[in-house]
Amino acid sequence: METLQKAKQFFNEDKFQKLVGVEIEEVQNGHSVCVLNLNQNHFNADGLVQGGVLFTLADSAFAIAANSTDCFVVTLSTSMQYMTKATGSFIKAEATLVNTSKRVCFYRVEIKDEIGALVAVANMTGYIKSR
Hints:
Mean pLDDT: 92
Largest sheet: 6 strands, antiparallel
Number of domains: 1
CATH architecture: Roll
Number of helices: 3
Order of helices and strands: HHEEHEEEE
Distance between the termini: 12 Å
CATH superfamily: Hotdog Thioesterase
Radius of gyration: 14 Å
Strand content: over 45%
Structural class: alpha+beta
Number of strands: 6
């Protein structure tokens, strides 16, 4: 998957990503940007974007970036830090390849809100099942 069109076609089958509302904005080799337009379903009882929504956005951006490298990659582990509350009408995740080996890849995903505040950071490790 080297193009935005190929990524959108492949991840169109991801039912949960579609249900949450994750949209693919940009894809390059080992890099992706995804956006989520927020609605009332994305907020918890305290009025904050629910942590699972942030995690889903990070996981989606990781999957799209990792699988853009002509590999089939699955998540091995994730460490996620929540920094501040999201403000505005959307959040955006940017996944970037940090390092890769024969079978393992490492990505950093930053989630920012509409004003550019860093909302969360995920460090994600993937297992490369095939190339």
